[in-house]
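Predict structure. Chain length: 263.
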Amino acid sequence: MTISLKGKRALVTGSTSGIGLGIARALAGAGADIMLNGFGDSAEIEKIRAGIAGEFGVKTAYDPADMTKPAEIEGLVASCIAQLGGVDIVVNNAGIQHTAPVDAFPVERWDAIISINLSSSFHSIRAALPAMRQAGWGRIINIASAHGLVASANKSAYVAAKHGLVGLTKSVALETANDGITCNAICPGWVLTPLVQKQIDARAAAQGISVKEAELDLLGEKQPAKRFTTPAQLGELALFLCSDAASTMTGSAYSMDGGWTAQ
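Prediction complete.
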């Protein structure tokens, strides 16, 4: 199945690495112009931006908006419209994590996780919807998590935010059901990103085991399929959700979790 997004403009938050970058590359590969967003070394980000533009022949821009700040998120959407000519696709991927028992959870970490993992999606959707409604077409994809459907100990803020993101997805889908706009959530299990690789390496060092053994231990704690989902695979799912074939798929949470939430 060939999916063309030529002429569409996609904003992907948290897209300078990991899942967000994988999704941005998949959308660019289908012809969408891309607005990147995220933190990192400015030279490396420019290399990523120029690389996507050169490899796929699409217009690619970058905005460093801080996803904890509503005014900057509104500015990010405005920047996408100004630089790319519109905003047809919004992928809310930016997120952070912190683990601790709920009675020892730092208040400032709770606030930051709720702000970035949940509230930022509200602000970007709110800012982008008028342009989508005017165009009569739009795709909103919220990157939730298996933790948007089930819980784990010591992750109260992350679980609360991701459950909230799935709920937000459903509400937006209902409000846009007849506007040519869909809103869905993708719920990954373990994804091999640079941050997860650091966890694996740290576990291997702490337990005196090989990196491969640490990887299998990590996967085995939650996920029946002892292999990682890749950012590229998540990108392909996001791409499908942007296709005409998915025009009536809205308000749902799609798991790509190796059987995690089937248990």
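Summary: The domain at 9-190+229-258 is CATH 3.40.50.720 (Rossmann fold).
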